[in-house]
Specification:
The chain is an alpha+beta fold and about 200 residues long. Among the domains are: about 35-75; about 90-145 and about 150-185, Immunoglobulin-like (Sandwich). The chain has four helices and seven strands, in the order H-H-H-H-E-E-E-E-E-E-E. It has a four-stranded antiparallel β-sheet, with no helix packed on it. The protein has a three-stranded antiparallel β-sheet with strand order 3-4-5. The model has no long low-confidence stretch (mean pLDDT about 75).
Length: about 200
């Protein structure tokens, strides 16, 4: 029967010589941190997470840019419709230019209404105010075409103005010529009354 060889480490041999007691050797050796498997795994996980975050951010940036470009494209395509809708909500004073002049006998109001038909104008007159309402019709010949620029306004517009003096509403007249409405309202004459002292 063959003997088995037992291989012992240097440390085990030293322990046997010392009678089974562990010998401590003091050496001035600097401890050097050794990279363990755990540290390597953590670093790999952090690198993977950073790459995922970068991919997510890049994807979000591309999505936001696409949405912005689509929005700009839609605005360009719908510019005419948008401007028409905005003009419907614009203050009527911006739509209807008006002059009010007081002469010796009358108050004359002139309003620009280009492209409006005479039957689409309504004038309301009271003793101290005047209101003009007009309808600007949308032209149908360009409805399916794309507008490069659209500034002409369509829809209903109205404008009121206070009159500075009392007027004779029954004697007022209106004339519409070449896109200009002229309303002439005679002023009420000043009345004098002499009082007798008792």
């Amino acid at each position: 029967m063959e003997e088995k060889k037992v291989i012992k480490t240097k440390r085990e041999l030293e322990m046997e010589k010392a009678g089974g007691k562990e010998v401590k050797e003091e050496k001035n050796v600097e401890e050097v941190p050794v990279e363990t498997k755990e540290t390597t795994e953590e670093t790999t996980e952090e690198t993977t997470e950073e790459k995922q975050v970068e991919k997510t951010l890049e994807k979000g940036k591309n999505t936001a840019q696409k949405i912005f470009e689509d929005m700009i494209s839609t605005f360009r395509d719908k510019q005419g419709d948008f401007e028409k809708a905005m003009s419907d909500y614009t203050a009527s004073s911006a739509k209807l230019a008006m002059d009010v002049v007081e002469t010796d006998n009358d108050i004359v109001v002139k309003a620009d209404l280009p492209g409006v038909k005479k039957e689409d104008i309504v004038i309301d007159l009271t003793e101290d105010s005047l209101e003009i309402m007009a309808i600007f019709e949308d032209e149908s010949e360009f409805k399916d075409d794309k507008f490069i620029k659209k500034e002409r306004r369509y829809g209903e517009t109205r404008r009121s103005v206070s009159l500075p003096k009392m007027v004779k509403i029954d004697e007022a007249s209106a004339k519409f010529d070449n896109g200009v409405l002229t309303v002439t309202i005679p002023k009420e004459e000043k009345r004098r009354h002499t009082l007798s002292v008792e």
